[in-house]
Amino acid sequence: MTLEIAVQSAGYQDEFLTHFRSGFTSTLRWHQFDRLWELLRTQNPEGWYIYAVGEAPPETRCTAAQFFKFLEEMAVLLRREHDEDYCGIVYADNLSRPSFVKIFDPNNLGVSCGYSDNPPLPGWILSRIRPVDLAAATQSASRKRWWRRLFS
Question: Which of 11, 57, 101, 137 has the most CB atoms lying inside 10 A of its own CB?
Fold first, then answer.
């Protein structure tokens, strides 16, 4: 690997991790989630990476069809499995101009709110920055089957 390629590779990794660790705003209520999802549906679907944490991070951006399918299926999954009167498990870097969205798995929340020395990783990430492997995460077999079925 040439030095230039190594620097570029490290650059996107640093950019992703810096952004991943930066400030995010929760969609605390379902109407906020709905507003974010509508915004994502109506903005340009090109340029997004869809990363299922625990799987290999994608090397290429998703297609518009994959992006819309993910939004649709994720909304169904969250409403079905997070049977609460609040959402609170979807976070965006900017609720009016999102470029990075963390979605926590309703079945693996741990201590996602509040302080923890080992907070859970999100289950899925939508990002305009190419993701890096967040290898500490492990998904259940049912989540892996759900993810693989989504685009097969």
Answer: 101
Gap between the Cα atoms of 126 and 53, Å rounded: 11
Q: Which amino acid is at 26?
A: S
Q: Residue 152 in contact with residue 143, Cβ under 8 Å?
A: no
Task: Give the tens place of pLDDT for each residue, 118-127.
Answer: 567 899 999 9
* Residues whose CB falls within 8 Å of the CB of residue 140, separated by 6 or more in sequence, listed in order: 107, 108
Distance between CA atoms of residues 136 and 138, nearest Å: 7
Domain boundaries, the chain: 3-150
- pTM, whole model, 2 decimals? 0.77
For 6-52, the three-class secondary structure string (H helix, E strand, C coil) is HHHHHHHHHHHHHHHCCCCEECCCHHHHHHHHHHHHHCCCCCCEEEE
